[in-house]
Amino acid sequence: MIDHQVRVHPSAEHLPREEQLAWKLAEAATATQEAEGLDPAAAEMAANRIIDNAAVAVAALRRRPVAVARAQALSHRTSSGASVFGVAAGTRVSPEWAAWANGTAVRELDFHDTYLAADYSHPGDNIPPLLAVAQRTGRSGADLLRGIIAAYEIHVALVKGICLHAHRIDHVAHLSAATACGIGAMLRLDTGTVYQAVQQAVHTTTATRQSRKGEISSWKAFAPAFAGKAAVEAVDRSMRGEGSPSPVYEGEDGFVARMLDGPDASYTVSLPGPGEVRRAILDTYTKEYSAEYQAQAVIDLARTLREKAGPLGKVRSVVLHTSHHTHQVIGSGSGDPQKYDPAASRETLDHSVPYIFAVALEDGGWHHEHSYAPERAGRPATVELWKRISTVEDPEWTRRYHEADPARRAFGGRAVITFEDGSVVEDQLAVADAHPAGARPFDRAGYTRKFRTLTEGIVTGPAQEGFLRTADRLAELGAAELTALFPAVDTNAVAAHDARLPKGLF
User: Fold this and answer.
1) Is residue 33 part of a domain?
2) 477-494: per-residue pLDDT in tens?
3) In terms of DSSP bridges, do strands 115-116 and 120-121 run parallel, antiparallel, or are they unpaired?
4) In terms of domain of life, where is this protein from (predicted)?
5) Number of independent structural domains in the chain
6) Does residue 470 belong to any structural domain of this protein?
7) Distances (CA, A) of 455 to 111, 112, 489
């Protein structure tokens, strides 16, 4: 890996584009090997993530934000466009709108892959815009695979090197850069074109984290889809010869100087050198449960503690000792009263670790729909237990969260349950069971099981098997076969559901 230093440069101090981070990102992406030369484990994981994305997208087809995004996309039909989840196989829409609709479907349940380091990310959000552009441009499965591997490589590098959340900047700014790089690698664009696209994408998708604060709305699902759509449009403009705000990262009024640590800041972003195998996708991990990633280990911990604790009616308090991030973002350290509100939105509840721990402790598990149902959130016994749960930051768990070695990094915590008689039950868990370092890491069988479970009753058995066979042949797929990466569903039922939505401008 090659370390690239990123600091602010005044305009009078001309920084050659070859020394700018956006160029380095574009250069690393356009040097990505041909699909047949990619690391086999990385290629298999890319197929796993296509399966994962399809599973959660299909499960979310009738959720309102997904239906709205789909309706908007269907207003932009074109014969040479891209497919949309839940729509008839022959229907095509403009690729940026396919990226929008499919990106929203993938993100809605907060149930696909994650990578956590200096910042946060869901690298699987790169796949919908790449797949849309691949269909629009007639690319093969091997081309798509190359693009996915490149996008993950860039995304992980940025998340490792540059913290956004400390400045309350949303993590989709890293996503849009990675997507532009992935598209560039997939289309074999020159480094200069990708460089301009990266800068346009970052400039137009820098937003605050208010989308994940307080009363969290449906925009949480739309935000990464917007970044993917913006990246597609940025690549299109760059291919037509248009420039961008430059240097977008290092400029004296740029990203680092005005959004992050300021004029004296310095960051290190490590990128693969020429010929170095791209394996960053293997550092990322998916979710077994539909909840914010720091809650994954907490759910597994609650399942264990449920067996030890016995009846929960006489709990005096539950304290979860955990990392700074878990405490401040999804815990009581956020200061958000909405995290204790039974009438809160689903998006708010999946970012409330006190709620999640209460339900998992009572139920011994988690369901992507039932665990968020209004009647479940409003159950009196749950509400009583919920308000007795708090989080505290433990410096040791914060240190473990930022551990340099991915195999030793921890995203869990220690739960202490105190009963009214003074007795205490406690336990701890470092990572979720499904994490690569967990008790039962997800493998192809795990992804397949998740797909079958989430699409049961929506995708027929034969259609499930056909999709899985197609995903397994990703590197061998011809351009026309990419349509089969969208599982067939009852499109009439989906259309009937969508017809009840209010109309917009399109």
Assistant:
1) yes
2) 999 999 999 999 999 999
3) antiparallel
4) Bacteria
5) 2
6) no
7) 14, 14, 9
